[in-house]
């Protein structure tokens, strides 16, 4: 049994897509209420 948070803050300097892909189970959790993502658009290009 894992830990599933209620709120996430993600600030990963250009690796947002990789982080989101790797946490699909957490994102699908019924306990998750909010996700805050700081996006660095220039680093995503």
Summary?
The chain has 45 residues and is α+β, with helices and mostly antiparallel strands.
List keywords for this structure.
about 45 residues, alpha+beta, 2 strands, 3 helices, two-stranded parallel ribbon
Description:
This protein is of the alpha+beta class and 45 residues long. The chain has one domain. It is 33% helix and 18% strand. The protein has three helices and two strands. It has a two-stranded parallel sheet. It starts with 6 loop residues before the first strand and ends with a helix.
Q: Which structural class is indicated by helix and strand composition?
A: alpha+beta
Number of helices: 3
The portion of residues assigned to helices is: 25-40%
What is the radius of gyration? Answer: 11 Å
- Give unreliable regions as ranges: none
Q: Looking at the structure, what is the overall shape?
A: elongated
Number of strands: 2
Cα end-to-end separation? 37 Å
Biggest sheet, spatial arrangement of strands: 1-2
Q: What topology emerges from the helices and strands here?
A:
Layout: E1 7-10, H1 16-22, H2 24-27, E2 34-37, H3 41-44
Parallel strand pairs: 1-2
């Amino acid at each position: 049994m894992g830990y599933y948070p209620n709120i996430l803050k993600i600030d990963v300097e250009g690796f947002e897509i990789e982080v989101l892909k790797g946490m699909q189970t957490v994102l699908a959790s019924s306990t998750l209420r909010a996700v805050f993502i700081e996006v660095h658009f220039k680093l995503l290009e």
